[in-house]
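Supplementary Data S3. Sequence and structure tokens for construct A.
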Amino acid sequence: MIKLLIVEDELITRRGLMRHIPWKKIGVDMVETAESADEAFGICARWQPDIVLSDIKMRGMDGIEMCRQLRSLLPDCQIIFVSSYSYKEYLKAAIELGAIQYVEKPVVPEELIGAVEKGIERIEQIRAQKDLQESYTESLDFLKKEVLFSLLSTPGDVDKLECQLRKSGLWTGTDTRMRIGIVKLAGTVSEGREFLNTYREALHELMEPAHFYCSADFHDKRTLILLITEARERLERDSGLIRSLCALAEESKGEFRHFLALGRMVGEPQQLYASYESACQSASSLSYKGFSSCAFSEEVAQDRHFELDREREEAFVNALSRRDKEEAGRILKDIYDDLTDQKAALNSSVKNMYFLLYNHVLRLEKELLSTGKEQKENNRFWDNAQTLQELHTFLAARAMEAIEEREKEGSGGNAVIFQVIEVMKQKYPDKNLCIKDLADAVYLTPSYLSGLFKRRTGTTINQYLTNLRIEQAKLLLRDNSLKLYHVADRVGYEDAAYFARIFKNQTGMTPSEYRENKSR
């Protein structure tokens, strides 16, 4: 599609150009007009025309200056000047701006049509060049991806790997050295694609595109695999490039916090898999080093069995029961420091240690009857945690919250629950009875009362009120003189049909069936 913008301050000229030039016939699909440079800037920002046909002498900013500014906004836009003046300085400015043609007024349609056709031809050439460049870039990207695929899937096929390295331009021969890097993202999987694009942009600032390739891991979208091919001095551990890559990781923050593990430098395609293996080994050190850090091939986590010291476990449980936040925090910090000092890998034994401590916190909270959604969220955390720091932070926060909640509740918690239950027993026939009314009765917020009630009783306020109403309904149903809607009304339900559904959900039978069953 070709879009053309006419910038002309004279209404008669604008209308004449629109009416007498067969735009569709010569290949222009859409035409818009502007009567000033200011209006033209707005249209260009919104519409992005391919060709601008502009007068030179206009009120306000002239056409020369307007097109000079448009060049930065639309570098590929083709310019045609139309003017009654043929001053030398105008012609010189038009040439400097790369204008297609300078058409003098009064406009000869054939001359203008020829200029527009020339502009269309240039646009098509530019588009063809861009398409060719994109195809070339995509082909190179595909070849580079094939290198990683071959490296991970068929590491023994050295000839194939060398051929792909040469075709992709990543390896040119004996002077080239290579390193594999593994990048671990702290964020979620949904952020993986955005992080990959951002990380590639950062790499472009440090290296030429021909010297690296970065792709998401085939199995874990939070992991990137980086292949760098450079001269030896550029890939040495203390080189500027390697220091810059490490700085990217160490200075990373927020949702794009990441960890970089670098494999050893190699010089031959057959050694590349060894670089990948050493990068995988150094990636294990993420467990104790944490995100916003980097590691080299000699830094490896200790993947062995770890057990929780029985005395520490008992001390932690005692601190929880005494509501001693300082002591509980100190014990957790000691456990974390010991595991970090031992460079512990985040294996099942370490996760089991923290999960055992977490269960003690759950017992304090009396939340082992937590909802399925809460349980699923907790399971996702344990599955997705990658560092000791994450486990420590999560557990310490939950422990402090549990102790603080117990401090708030104190010994009066049970008395509050008893009082709320008594209010429900008195007011259950009230159809408008809600949690806010109950919370107001005991001078608590609805959210706090809901959590307290659930922890102390194992059920929600709404479920307890429903159970209470159904039990009262069972008693009333024994009186055959009461219609069903009378029973519903007396236990707090305005809609008898809704009451019947709730009753069946609770008892497995309709109110009528229950009445008949009790009458036998």
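Construct B, processed identically:
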Amino acid sequence: MIKKKEELSRFLFILPLLFTLLILIARPASGATTYSVTLVPSIATGTGMPIDVGSLIITLSPGAASSSVNKSVYFALPSNPPGYTLTMGTPNISNSSGSVSITNNNGNSYTSQLKVTSTLTPTDPASDVTITIPLTITVPGDVCGDIKLDISASDGSVFSCGTITVARAGTLQVTVNIDNIKAFNNSSIELGNIYVHENTAGALISSPESLRFKLPTGFTWDLSGISTNLIWGDLGVVPTLGHFKLADNNTILFVSIQHQSNQPTRFSINGLRMNADLNRLRGPGPVICQVNGLSNVTPTSLTVAKYFPIVSTDPPDGATGVSISKNITVSFGENIQTGDNIGGVTLTKDGNQVQFTYGINGNTLALYPNGLDYSVTYAVYIPIGAIKDYGGIALTNNYSFSFTTRPYPSSGSGSGSSSGSSSSNSTTSQQATVTAVTPIPQQITPLMTTTNDIATLSPQITANGQPVIFDVAPEIKNDRTFAPVRTLAYSLGITENNVSWDNTTSTVTIISNDLTLKFTVGSNLFIINGTAQEMDMSPYIKNDRTMVPLRFFAEALGLTVEWDKKTQQVNIK
């Protein structure tokens, strides 16, 4: 009797344990299903374009996977503000031969459903089953911060509920810069390396028109030597040759980005060339390309090169009958200074170098040989880096020209002996002695630009420290600097769409943020947001360009104008 009581006591003790165990077997344990993502990228908002944001990974324990048939789980992006869309791609299942189905637009464009259509029995009973699903989303504008995916399932489902962050929205920015602004005076130049840098992963939008570089009139792109190089980040983002496309008669370069990065990325574009129609360029200055595209790019204008022409030589190239007492001058399109390679300038005859001294005055380099010989062809060579402008940009093309002196005078002319040469010139096959002489004698004058009012050097204009290139040169009239208004506006970041011309009234309209400016040719009144202001000079037309008083234009935009009389430079900032 006592033994039966002991057995009953043991059974009553074990019974609750068996009941608890049966409950645990009958339902998945807490945490049997978990959710994660492969990455949380930063994305642009308001583009209206679908964005790949990585993949959602659903992990099921062996017990949950074995009980998953016909079970569903629902995913939803926020419903407000309107404009979210969610697309789940083809699932990839590991450790199971079971199957699932995906239903996108499950009632709304921002919701999707996953349903297990055949049991996800683990191939390896000791390991979890994972479902990996690519996610593509669209995010409306004015969204900032974490973008969360809401996950819901019915009671008793093997799928758990919750939320997970799939992306971050905010200010994404791509910065472009160039490492070397080269000066050129011929029709083709290889540019410095252009660097593209994301401030955060995903800033470069995946699109055939992610970046757009537009050259001004008279210039075209040349992709013959282009290459790219990853500095750091995601190699898959870096475009290859096939990802560069030219448009609009090769004046526009599109850079295609194939997918958004999973980490901040920086790469360089190397060997990009630019061709110039020199007949369409009317003065020296920087070549500024407009930068935009679907990515948020800064700056919106980039100086890629500097047109630094040699406008004349005296004697001209190929001249004959040149006096043996001639000094040699080379005139540039703007004021100059000596570069690091000034010692490389040479004057030669028959391959031998001739001694000379040199000097610079304004925009002119002069060579003073110690007399020239009769009936001799001389060659002048100015190498890369010998001359630079006042902004420190050096000449990046070699330049040379030649001339021939006049024959020795016939006997009886009173011009000297009949020996056939003047012995005052010294030649040597060694390096010539080059001596600086400053200043040049006053008969050497700078290149002048003449107007009806005055004659003066063409002023050089910079915007926020970047030189501005014009197809019609700025000029000074009655102590006022005038410049083509459209190019001036572009250099200050005003886009093409915000500069318009009314041919009926000869009025140009410029829109910048909350300001609207109107300038009318021949009128000394300009309009700011509907209010007339008076100028002491009026705009005029020059070579089909509207010339406006620079100071009135800049100050109306709230900018500061600085004038350097010595260098004839205007800086707008």
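The helical segments are 2-26, 62-66, 485-491, 550-556. The longest strand covers residues 51-60.
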